[in-house]
Amino acid sequence: MNRILQIAALIAGLFAASAVCAQDKVTVEIGYLPILPDAQLFVALENGAFEKAGIKPDLVEFQEGPAMVQALLAGQLDAAYFGIGPAMVASARGADIKVVASNIVEQISFVAVGDLAGFATGGVEKQTFSDFAAKQGRKARISTFPTGSVPDTVLKYWLTKQLGASVDDIEIIHQGAAQVQQALLTGAVDGAAILEPAVSLALSRDADANVLASGSQMFPGQPGAVLAVRGSLIKEHPEVVEAMVAAQRDATEALRDKAPGAAEAVGKYVGGGRLPLEVVRQALDRSRQSFVADPNKIVEGTVAMRDFQKAEGTLREDVDVEKLIDTSFYDRLSPKDGQGAPAKPEAVAQ
Fold first, then answer.
1. Is 285 within 8 Å of 200 (Cβ atoms)?
2. Nearest to 346 by CA among 234, 230, 265, 267
3. DSSP assignment, residue 149?
4. What are the pLDDT digits (tens) for 38-84?
5. Phi, psi of 162 (to 5 degrees)
6. Beta-carbon count within 10 A of 202 CB
7. Structural domain includes residue 302
8. CA 173 to CA 161: how far, in whole Å?
9. Which residues neighbour 121 within 8 Å (Cβ) at sequence distance 6 or greater?
């Protein structure tokens, strides 16, 4: 009988411990885009970093940044992995958010297909698009993300600041992430200012596809996707924010070091999990050096982007970049080898 009572007590204790663990977990509503610049989130989800930190992710998928802005303004989402452009718009319109980590920089490439790829084999200059229009009898149709997004902003910056051309030289078609990729792959447009893995996918499927400009050529130092959190999460659960930033930096190192399972983790979420793993690996390899978690490194580029968007009229309200970007959580991370690098995460579950 004593033995039975001991077993019953043990079982009761296990249930009680499980209940306590469940109560200790903090549910965090996380908005994200199924794109490679959000790769750190996917690695953190799969390597157990959130679970170990007591975070229960409630994922909400979006297809474009502006929709996430609306969600934030409506009081939804505790955290958001999206572009710095929409983050500035959300902040300017009253959303109480802070950018606590960077995801990636110089993430946009310009890919040409069809007639434009053949026309611009010698590179792109100020007159390239106007000359193309004169020869074809129409403007080049270029697809990119919605107005005010990072890809849209980078495309316009490249045309006007880098090439000295005019936005009016092309026809810009604004679409969601999936639609931009589909338009490029089907030849419905002449080119696109896009993210990985759409670049690698286009190059793998179309022998004539050509990268006319890389991210560093289009907008040097350009900030891309970021991790933003709501002010209430910082106030109520600063330990959760600290854990998310630590996971961000660990995942960044995993991506840069090609850690086992990282590609599989990213491939599970990007493109609906339907992309060939080899394409995901190629996309990650092209982006490896662009993964940057330190928010200090995007302050200057964010100021430049803010000023350009204000001049373009896509950002009507002023944004205090130094208030928007909170580097304190990242700055407090324990250093490693005197360089502030995080400890390497465990291999991602495969």
1. no
2. 265
3. S
4. 999 999 999 999 999 999 999 999 988 889 999 999 999 999 999 99
5. -90, -45
6. 22
7. yes
8. 20
9. 210
The domain in which residue 239 lies consists of 25-101+225-331
Strand partners, 58: 29
> pLDDT tens across 281-339, in order?
999 999 999 999 999 999 999 999 999 999 999 888 889 999 999 999 999 997 753 33
Structure tokens at 154: 């980078």
Domain assignment present for residue 6? The answer is no
For residue 210, the model assigns a pLDDT of 94
Inside any domain, residue 311: yes
Distance CA 95, CA 66 (A): 13
Provide the 3-class DSSP secondary structure of residue 350: coil
Q: Is the pLDDT of residue 115 over 90?
A: yes
The answer to whether residues 86 and 229 belong to one domain is yes
176 and 312 together in one domain: no
- Which amino acid appears at position 183 of this protein? A
From residue 337, how far is each of 252, 291, 294, 342 by CA, in Å? 17, 20, 17, 9
Q: How far apart are CA 90 and CA 70, in angstroms?
A: 8
Q: How many residues does the chain have?
A: 350
Q: How many CA atoms lie within 13 A of 86 on its CB side?
A: 31
CATH assignment of the domain containing 244: 3.40.190.10
Q: Which residue type is seen at 72?
A: L
**Sign of the torsion formed by the C-alpha atoms of 297, 302, 308 and 309:** positive
